[in-house]
Amino acid sequence: MSKLRFGIVGTGGIARHHAIALKALADDADLVACADILPGRAQQFAAEFGISRAYESARSMLDAGGLDVICVCTPHPQHAEPLILAAERGIHGVAEKPLTATLADADRVLEAVHKHGTKLSMISQRRWLPAAQRIRRAIDEGKLGDKIILGESFCEMWRGPEYYARDAWRGRWDTEGGGVLMNQSPHNIDFLLYYMGPAEEIFGYWANINHPYVEIEDNAVAVIRFKSGGLGILKGTVSMNPPRRIHGVTLVGSNGATVSLDCWDFATAQNDIWTVPGDEEKLDEWRAHDRSFGTGELPNFHAYQLRDVIDAIRTNREPAVTGEDGRRVVAIIQGVYESGRTGRPVKL
Ligand SMILES: NC(=O)c1ccc[n+]([C@@H]2O[C@H](COP(=O)([O-])OP(=O)(O)OC[C@H]3O[C@@H](n4cnc5c(N)ncnc54)[C@H](O)[C@@H]3O)[C@@H](O)[C@H]2O)c1
After folding, report:
1. Is the CB of 146 under 6 A from ligand 1?
2. Burial of residue 299 (number of CB atoms within 10 Å: 0-12, 13-18, 19+)
């Protein structure tokens, strides 16, 4: 079977994880092109990763042809355009989180993908962590009852002046699209929706409390009602120094059993709470496994997700993380922003 030809748009920090992942998937994927608007940046990236073609815009890369999939690794408001241009040319899209900065952009992307019959996935690589998969399996096996009653989703981080000074786009509404919700929280918002299903209504507050050197919110809280009848709490902060659990969820099942997923750094997560009857003896063993697992057989968790995307394209199925999943995360983020502005709950 021929290899899928990949291109990367935006060759900054996270693009490296995509390139490393694609190199590890070399039996099925060829990273053949990259693009970045900063002069020279794509060329430098291409030289480092042995990529044959480098461009100064997504459009010129896409117009040159010879691509099957693009990974979009640009700042959030810059996700939609390359995804739409790709779909229009019959090229599949992988978007870094969040799918887009606005719901209008998410809708434009989904419309293009549906119209042209291409695949779309939003990166949520932490879903492949063993501790995250263990919760999904427990839910599927009915170990948490017939639904999740209560879910807490948290992002507990610290970001200081040096972080926002790193790139001109950080810390501004127009170029970052938002703060702790938009940038840091999509992983744990996706976890909550992955386990609890679609949300129905949200009410929230957000503010910039102790980061006066940036515009965007550094703290946000919200309450959510899910279609299932379950209730949720969302908490995001970049004011916790030192940081604690960078992402995670705690879930209470209808049978009373409680489980948690706690991500402590980029590649480690464990289940700190697990009160499923019959599983009491297993937790220590699981924790030891998860600590020593690292990233397993592949170099990073992006590689697990990109392997799924490749299989989805080849077998013509939906990727494990869909474009609709991505839109739901954007709806939560924008729902909190709107609720904070209007003082009213927002229907999702
Ligand atoms: N999945 C994860 O765990 C994870 C971690 C970090 C960042 N991210 C996401 O990755 C994305 C990029 O973040 P980053 O930290 O790599 O940022 P970055 O600033 O390091 O890299 C972004 C790159 O995109 C380029 N760019 C900007 N606009 C462009 C355009 N229109 N066309 C082509 N290139 C353009 C910039 O010049 C820059 O080189 C964001 O969506 C962020 O949320 C995801």
Report:
1. no
2. middle
- Domain at 127-294+329-347, CATH class: alpha beta
**4-118: which CATH number, 3.40.605.10, 3.40.50.2000, 3.40.50.720, 3.30.1330.30?**
3.40.50.720
Indicate the DSSP class of residue 328. Answer: H
Q: Which token pair is 5?
A: 């030809």
Determine contact, residues 146/138, Cβ cutoff 8 Å: no
Ligand 1 pocket member 38 (CB < 6 A):
yes
Residue appearing with tokens 């263990």: 134
247-253/258-265 β-pairing: antiparallel
Which of ligand 1's atoms lies nearest the C-alpha of 182?
43
* Token pair belonging to 68: 């099957």
User: 275: CA distance to ligand 1 center in Å?
Assistant: 39
pTM score, two decimals?
A: 0.97
Asked if pLDDT for residue 346 goes beyond 80, the answer is: yes
Specify whether the CB–CB gap between 70 and 313 falls below 8 A. Answer: no
Contact in structure between 173 and 129 (CB atoms under 8 Å): no
Tokens 């009410």 — which residue? 203
CB contact at 8 A, 181 and 217: yes
> Over 90: is that where the pLDDT of 267 sits?
no
Q: pLDDT above 90 covers what percent of the chain?
A: 96
What φ, ψ does residue 335 adopt, rounded to 5°?
Answer: -65, -40
Residue ranges of domains in the chain: 4-118, 127-294+329-347
- How many angstroms is it from 101 CA to the middle of ligand 1? 13
Q: Strands 148-156 and 231-237: what pairing?
A: parallel
Whether the CB of 97 sits within 6 Å of ligand 1: yes
Atom of ligand 1 nearest to the CA of 14: 16
pLDDT digits (tens, 9 = 90+) for 301-317: 999 999 999 999 999 99
